[in-house]
Amino acid sequence: MHIDRHNDTLQSQLGSWLKALPNGIPATIEAYLAATYPMDFGGDGMLFRWDNYLSIYFALYARAVKHAYFATHGEGDKPNHAHVTQLDPVALLAFLTGALNQVRLPVVLNIDLDYFFGPTHDDVAERILDDVYFDQVASAIAALDRAGTFRVITIALTATDDLTAGWAPAEALATRLCNALGRNFTLP
Fold it and tell me: Which of 55, 87, 52 is nearest to 73 (CA)?
């Protein structure tokens, strides 16, 4: 389940990225972060980025994902998976409080807090989904977590002015989400 402003499924160089992975995705975080690919115009580029990691995973391991649920604002390439359900904000909340309870497979949840923000004319993001909505989503995620629905939960802060209006708003939402999950949030 992918809750994010962006799809993170860029495919423009998918062939080149896959060629750089003859043995699949690296097993360690160090190797994953160090992976590169030869760029068309020379030099090596970082292989796994915020905008392509899901398209690479789907291209290599689509059979491991029974269904992909995307609550995004549609920014970026469409997901390259055969079984994708797109959820708008209303459908996301309904799904979290209803249908996802019926899923009996382990679910990986990736939530990027930029989902709750939108662009403005001055390149500083504004909240487009308010605190009431955010708290409803956080409570639903917490209930599903307590029920054992999620195998993994990742939270991305994306603390830039144009995506979440900077560190303070991103940290505030991360703190609220972690509190709902019964966890403390602190940055080193």
Answer: 87
CA 165 – CA 159 distance, rounded (Å): 7
Per-residue pLDDT of the chain in tens (188 residues, 90 and over written 9):
999 999 999 999 999 999 999 999 999 999 999 999 999 888 999 999 999 999 999 999 999 999 999 999 989 999 999 999 999 999 999 999 998 888 878 899 999 999 999 987 788 899 999 999 999 999 999 999 999 999 999 999 999 999 999 999 999 999 999 999 999 999 88
Q: Which helix (H) or strand (E) holds 117?
A: strand 117-118
If you search the block for the tokens 């303070």, which residue do you land on? 168
Residue 112, SS3 per DSSP: strand
| 137/49 Cα distance (integer angstroms) | 26
| Residue-wise burial string across 42-51, b where 16 or more C-beta atoms lie within 10 A, e elsewhere | eeeeebbeeb
Reported as type and span, the H/E element at residue 94 is: helix 89-97
Distance separating alpha carbons of residues 155 and 163, to the nearest angstrom? 15
User: Tokens representing 34?
Assistant: 């160090």
Other beta carbons within 10 angstroms of residue 121's beta carbon come to 5
Q: What is the DSSP letter of 66?
A: S
Query: Which tokens sit at 9?
Result: 């499924």
Locate tokens 């990736």: which residue? 110
Residue type at 161?
A: D
